[in-house]
Amino acid sequence: MVDLYFAGVDVGSLSTDVVIIDGGSNVLSEVVIPTGVNGSEAAENAFNSALGLAKLTRESIVAVTATGYGRASVAFATGKTTEISCHGVGAHHLFPKTGTVIDIGGQDSKVIQVDSQGRMLDFTMNDKCAAGTGRFLEVMATRLELDLDELSSPLNISGESAPISSTCTVFAESEVISLLAKHTPREHIVHGLQRSIVNRIWSMVASIGIEGEVTLTGGVANNQGLVKLLEEKLGLPLNIPENPQTVGALGAAQIACRKY
Predict the structure, then answer these.
(1) Do 217 and 101 meet the contact criterion of CB atoms below 8 Å apart?
(2) Which of 142, 184, 220, 246 is spaced 20 to 30 Å from 22 by Cα?
(3) pLDDT tens per residue, the chain (260 residues)?
(4) Which fold has domain 1-95+242-260?
């Protein structure tokens, strides 16, 4: 099967990710681009870029699985499935002892329990508000006049945390504005924002429980400060993929291969 190639396309709210693998599950290329306003166009552009990096043609790809909220817009897909299934399979492929996956995406967060093959057993998700997601952090970074790298650094983790009590992005932004007006140090606000996300994730984890090793996926896994706080809250280390944003697309490619 090493001469066969498979692709996963994850069209998310903030980014579109593509991973191409061979029949031996080796990653040949991975691409992440902004989704923008046209998910179909983003999928085409990301897929073409991934093909170029892998030095393959479209005809070389025998199966493509699309996932993410925009999966219906991927016209060239041979199959479509949910991101919950894909994150489970992708996380298990990277960390075979994974029993629990925490995915913090652009617009929602999920906690997924998986079996020994990475197949979903149970899950819970926050899909009614962007608080505790990548979009939440983007909004707050803009308000604090920080870029995401600055917001992601482990600032003042053991120090003071400004209280952010709202569970709504709009109201939390108002709290941040009020704290800035009171000359609250930005690192205290950053710590408070990170802690508010951790508390939201913790409530989801508590409702479903933890099995096996825990793997964190999604772009927010690059936030070192949040990872440290979440590990402290859970009382255990987290598996962090080298490229957490592409785990869903990797899982989609794996599913394409399995089905073929």
Answers:
(1) yes
(2) 220
(3) 458 999 999 999 889 999 999 999 999 999 999 999 999 999 999 999 999 999 999 999 999 999 999 999 999 999 999 999 999 999 999 999 999 999 988 778 899 999 999 999 999 988 556 566 777 778 888 888 887 777 766 555 556 778 787 667 777 888 888 898 999 888 888 888 888 888 889 989 999 999 999 999 998 888 888 899 999 999 999 999 999 999 999 999 999 999 99
(4) Nucleotidyltransferase; domain 5 (3.30.420)
> What residues does each domain of the chain span?
1-95+242-260, 102-240
Is the fold of 1-95+242-260 the same as that of 102-240?
yes
The upper half-sphere exposure of residue 8, i.e. CA atoms within 13 Å in the direction of its Cβ, equals 36
- Fold of the domain spanning 102-240: Nucleotidyltransferase; domain 5 (3.30.420)
